[in-house]
Amino acid sequence: MASSGLLHSATISLPNELTLLIIDHLEDDNKALCALARASRGLQYLAEERLYRSISLLSVTDLDAIITAFTYRHDRVRAVQTLKILYQYRPEDLNDSDESRKTFNECVAHMANLREWHIESPYDNSHRWEAAGGEKWVEGDMHRFCCALEAACVEGPREADVIAAEHRLGKNVERTVGLALLESLTIHSHGIAVDFWELGGFHCLFRHPALRNLHVSCVAFPDAEIPELASHVNKTPLTSLIFDECELEPKSLLSILRTPARLKHLTLGENVFNYTRLRRSKPSLSKNPSATLEALSAVAHSLESLIHLDPTWRNDPSLNVLRSVRPHGEGLRNFHALVYLECDTDSLLHRAVIMNRDIAPPSLEILRVRRHWEAPSDLWEQPPDLDHYAALPSLTTLELLQSAYVGHDLSNASYICEADWLRNRHAKAYRLSKAGINLRMSLELHKSQSLIPPYLHGELLPIDICVYDANSIGFHRHIQPNDESKTGFCVSPKDSAAPNIPANMDDDEPPPETDQLGDTDIQLIRFETKTALRALTVRFLGSRYRPHMMEMFEDTSDEDEWDVDDLDEEEDMDLDVELSDDDDDDDFEDGHGPVFFELNGEFFIQDSDSESISGSDENEDEGEDEDGDDEMHDAVESQMSGI
């Protein structure tokens, strides 16, 4: 370490190795590091390397203090490796912060060791920039960020060549160009008076000499190639690129995708959620499938995962009907590394590629088909024709992903697991299994309808939950005409592919293969789905929504992690009503559904309308509970002897 020579002083008697271990041990204790920095000059250098390594700015009121610290010691600027600019929207602070932000941004331009940079406009995801401040952010802060990145693109490679030459001569030269080592960058911003900011000089994002992970949102790209990128074809180390709520065009996309040497992960996120604001969605990629596929061909040799978030479905009233178009060229036939694809059925990737087997990616293993909650049909009631996907020879997993938010009908367990839909779903999954494809159906649960991307600091991200997995449910079981009259059912572990075996079967023959589900299967799947959805509701909305019955299934030792209570009172009351109404319709809450219990490591389900063994009435006295447990135990004992 360059600073090791500073440790040799009369005040330090420990060997360098032990001193460094002590400082590393205190890395997360800023108070201790500050005290250590005051001990000696050598320890100050090492302690401040850790103190200033990661900076998260949540308020502009912190800028004056950090600017002062940077002014006294420039080494503190060089120490920064992670910077997160997450200013909160407080007009009384922001309106007087222009000069402070300007000075701080000049310091950012000299952060020679910065590796990770996250930028969020304090005016983002709102119309607040229309009043005051948004224009200064775009023309001030964003402009300075752009200039600093442009300097890194131009001066960084030159300095790297000089440093490499000096190293060959045995000399150690420190870097001086700011942002030249930047590896990860996230920018969430907006335009001067609209939701989208023009690319302009930010084409430097795609020429950066070290950047590997780039995530940008709400950018309006030009409908033309970007000439500044022509000299950087296959030269950048970018491996992950995410466009989030952007206005993409095939021509500029082609220029961008030509620059990485080996891009592995690409998300083409068009404007799906921000269409209700100052301008409507105008998806361009699916309207020009041949031009878009030509742009994608630039990364055919390396791309491993591809996601397309496309709002074309807004104008399609019959999404469940699969349609195809025949593009020019070879589609994704030459994408031999592509194993994951995600899109909706109106995306060009689905219509032009998935629907044409001969130009589909030859190594595709996972296909995820999306559906938005505002779409005219949902995946629970009207899934697309699943038999078509059996024609993809390499496919092993087909996942249907339905989005919804807490309290929406599409996130209701009774709706998701409606008996006829579930049986039909399982029958189709059986046919897919014969082609070696496992069907999964998942819910992408959002906190609320109004919380939309790009997701900013502190906002809860959507959570995916699998509500149906054909392999876990299995296709071997005994189906009886009066399945609901069974006295007991032995259920295999949730993640096991082992078949479900009725507990009252007397023969030792294995259950036959079938594409059917029994009534008890339906009840069990519905119950597991409801339990999982309630757990997610608690995570989104706070511990006061935890139903009493969930204590049977979850570890409640750490209540703090459930306290996410940032809703207003009116929203809380509305959701209370929704959850209460949902409970009233569920058979598991009124003592008429199955009862779950465990014996000798096995998980059992008991169908009964008897209150004596339901164990679900909170008003039962202690003696009645004990009698119910005894009767349940005796029933299980007799069933176990017959298995």
Automatic annotation (TrEMBL):
Residues 505-517, 578-589, 617-632 have a biased composition (Acidic residues). Coiled coil: none annotated. It comes from the Eukaryota. Residues 494-517, 578-643 are annotated as: Disordered. Signal peptide: none annotated. This is F-box domain-containing protein.
